[in-house]
Specification:
The chain is an alpha+beta fold. The chain folds into two domains: 65 residues, Arc Repressor Mutant, subunit A (Orthogonal Bundle); 175 residues, GAF domain (Beta-Lactamase), CATH 3.30.450.40. It is 47% helix and 19% strand. The strands form two sheets. It has a six-stranded antiparallel β-sheet with strand order 6-5-4-9-8-7, sandwiched between helices. It has a three-stranded antiparallel β-sheet with strand order 1-3-2. Helix 2 crosses helix 3. It starts with a helix and ends in a 5-residue tail after the last helix.
Length: 255
């Protein structure tokens, strides 16, 4: 019979494996995990095979690495619906949408990726929108930089060392130093700005929502560059930052 403390120890090991795999964009090998967790390779391998079998991990045969699987991402996607993230933020997002007349989104970091969990689409015929629940790389675009600005510096450095910085468009920032500068500027200014980094022709302005005990969140505004002129950027940024601060207060950031 398995004792309660042994069961808890097994759960702790599973959690440690999942967190380690999630923390590295390229995944982790059996050898890496065994060293990180001070477990035997055979013990780690058994855990990995079981987690892959239920869809919580994905095994990449060419690299021999395990990364977060669709099963975990599906569970993560249910979190916003079960929490008050969207419900508490919706009034502020609605006000921002009415003010700016462009697509307004609420994003959450899932591992080292970005997921849109709510949006109000622009009423204009020409507009940009994103897919709810779809995952995007954190390094590409304003929303990703806003989310990254909430992570500790050491974790950001590790992420940028591990991730394959492939361009999504011709304007995607793929230099580590430039990305670090952008994250630092986001922290200073309170918002991130992008032009065509993930979608050609799209302007993005995003502000982080810092709430202790919550996953990294941010609010963003998207629109076509032909409608969002340089002269409008400052006013839009102020509106986005103001909304992010209101969302943070509603979600407990002011406690």
């Amino acid at each position: 019979m398995v004792r309660g403390d042994e069961t808890l120890d097994s759960v702790d090991r599973v959690a440690a494996v999942l967190r380690a795999c999630a923390a590295h964009q390229g995944g982790k090998s059996v050898r890496d995990l065994a060293a990180d967790l001070t477990l035997s390779k055979s013990a780690v391998h058994r855990l990995l095979v079981s987690l892959e079998h239920v869809g919580f991990l994905h095994y990449d045969s060419p690299s021999g690495r395990y990364s977060i699987g669709e099963g975990i991402l599906e569970l993560a996607a249910t979190y916003p619906r079960r929490s008050d993230l969207v419900g508490e933020s919706r009034p502020m997002l609605s006000d921002l949408w009415s003010e700016v007349g462009e697509t307004v989104c609420l994003h959450m970091a899932v591992g080292w990726q970005r997921m849109t969990i709510f949006q109000y689409e622009s009423p204009h015929d020409l507009r940009f929108a994103t897919s709810i629940g779809e995952l995007y790389p954190l390094y590409a675009g304003a929303a990703g930089r806003a989310l990254l600005s909430l992570f500790p510096d050491g974790e950001i450095e590790q992420y940028l060392d591990d991730v394959d910085l492939k361009p999504v468009t011709g304007r995607t920032i793929v230099g580590k130093d430039e990305l670090l500068d952008g994250i630092a500027r986001t922290r200073t200014d309170g918002y991130a700005f992008s032009h065509g980094e993930r979608v050609t022709g799209a302007i993005g302005i995003a502000a982080p929502i810092a709430v202790p005990g919550r996953p990294p969140l941010c609010v963003s505004v998207y629109g076509p560059a032909e409608r969002i002129r340089a002269a409008q950027t400052s006013a839009l940024a102020k509106a986005v930052v103001r909304t992010a601060q209101a969302c943070a207060a509603a979600l407990g950031g002011g406690r």
